[in-house]
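Hey team,

Filing this mostly as a record. A colleague (T.K.) asked me to run one chain through the structure pipeline before their review meeting, and I want the input and output archived in the tracker in case anyone asks later how it was produced. No errors, nothing strange. Just documentation.

Input sequence:
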Amino acid sequence: MAKILEKMNSAIVAGFVLALILLVVFNAKELGNSEFWRGFFTVFHVLSGVLWIGLLYYFNMVQIPTMPKIPAELKPAIGKFIAPEALFWFRMAAASTVLFGLIVAYQMRGSLTVILDVGMLLGLIMAFNVWFIIWPNQKKALGMVPADDATKAKAARVAMLTSRTNFVLSIPMLYCMVMSRYGVSAF
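Output structure:
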C-alpha cells in the first residue's frame, strides 16, 4: 500500500479504481438511468471544484499572505517550482469544473433554478478570470514570459487582485450551488 501512496499518480489511480469498484457493486443495474449519469458527472464536477476552490483558497489564505515573510533567497524556489505547478492544477481544475458543470447543466435542462443559474454565472466569471487574467499575468510575474521588473510587479498585482476577486465570488457561488440542491430559490 505504501508503494501506491508514495506516488501521486498511483494514489489518484487508486482513488478512481476504488470509486469504480463502488460504482459496479452498488450501481451496475442503474447504468441506463439518466439520474445515475447526472450523479456520476456531478461527482467529477465536485471533485474538480474542490481542487479549484482549494487552490484558490491556498493562494489567497496561505501563499499570498506568506510571500512577504519569506526571505528573498528562498522566493525563487516558490516562483520557479511551487507556483507554476499549483497554477497548472488551478487552471486544469477550473476547466474541468466548467466542463463537468456544463454536462450536468445540460442533463438538468428544464429544471435549472434562478439561484443555480447565478451560481453557474459566477463560476463562469471565475473561470474566465483564471484563464484570461490571472494566468497571463502570472506568466509575466513568474518570469515564464519576458517582462521587465515594472511589468512583472504590475502583472503580479493584477493577478493577485483578480485572484482575490475570485475568492470573494467563490462564497456566493458556493452558496448558490449548494442551496439550489435544497429547493432554495431567489424568487
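Quick notes for T.K.: The mean pLDDT is 92. Residues 1-31 form one domain.
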